[in-house]
TrEMBL record:
Alphabetical list of CDD domains matching this protein: Avd_like
Protein name: Four helix bundle protein
Biased composition (Basic and acidic residues): 52-68
Region annotated Disordered, chain positions: 36-68
Length: 68
């Protein structure tokens, strides 16, 4: 991104906007990586409840109701 700005392929306004967006993305990825490093590893062959697999809480509640 910086190279494109330095060779004038991207104007200042677009560079600022894109840089801010890339910074947000980088922070999100860094947070996800940190979370993965701090979480216990999954065990192979373990039958996990769908709620433990990262699904949304609303999906988990719906799936529990339909299991009867």
């Amino acid at each position: 991104m910086r190279l494109a700005w330095e060779i004038k392929s991207v104007n200042n306004n677009k560079y600022i906007i894109l840089s801010e967006q890339l910074e947000k993305i980088g922070k999100q990825i860094g947070g996800w990586l940190k979370q993965l490093k701090n979480s216990p590893p999954l065990q192979a062959g373990r039958n996990m409840d769908s709620c433990e697999t990262g699904r949304r809480p609303s999906d988990c509640q719906d799936s529990r109701r339909t299991r009867a």
